[in-house]
Design brief:
- It is a single chain.
- This protein has about 110 residues and is an all-alpha fold.
- It contains 4 helices and no strands.
- The radius of gyration is 21 Å and the shape is elongated.
- It starts with a helix and ends with a helix.
Length: about 110
């Protein structure tokens, strides 16, 4: 991998890292949800920093090109993240529905 590509990839990772930290500071992202992104970018940094590591993993996993492996891994990670957030949204939806029902019952008791 060329030095320029490594530089730009590392720069991108650090920019996104600081954006996530900024959102955590402003309470726009919960810390437990940002851990996923920190882990993902940590793995990407390992691939970038250790020379030859990506090529070795590519050959061991049976991919012809490192880019194919990276795209496959990223698509897999994004699918897992999507499933995880869908589970969270479904749970929140149930909690909101229960809260609305409880508030409606309390308002009904007040009027009587």
């Amino acid at each position: 991998m060329s030095g320029k590509l490594i530089f730009w990839a590392c720069l991108f990772i650090f920019i996104v890292f600081f954006i996530i930290l900024y959102y955590i500071k402003k309470n726009k992202i919960n810390i437990k949800y940002s851990v996923i992104w920190f882990l993902l970018f940590g793995v990407l940094l390992i691939f970038l920093i250790i020379p030859g590591f990506l090529e070795k993993i590519t050959k061991l996993s049976g991919f012809d090109l490192a880019s194919n492996m990276i795209f496959s891994l990223l698509i897999g990670v994004l699918v897992i993240i999507n499933i995880y957030f869908t589970k969270i949204i479904s749970s929140q939806d149930k909690k909101i529905r229960n809260l609305i029902q409880e508030v409606s019952l309390l308002k009904g008791d007040k009027n009587e």
